[in-house]
Description:
- The protein is about 60% helix and about 0% strand.
- By secondary structure, the chain is an all-alpha fold.
Amino acid sequence: MPIDALGQINHLSALQPLAPPQTSEGGTPVVGGFAGVFNSLLGANQKANAAADAAISDLATGQAQDLHTVTLALAQAETSFRTILEMRNRLSDAFQEVARMQV
């Protein structure tokens, strides 16, 4: 690549700062942070389970000819479930650690 071609490279635009946390009319913060992440994980898990169920029923009825797609949907649902289960375990461990702290 000749050096003259380097002038055609586009520069990245500047990053925009993060927006401040949103608050409702009463001044309480809108759900975000950990609760928002956890709710999105639960929603993604429900979608993955629904997709796995649909893939299994399609395979059972003969509508799906590709076993790889069905296996992939099942693996995604299992991974999503294991992620939520691990988060639950870590939260439980953290709560137990805090409960053991002496004041």
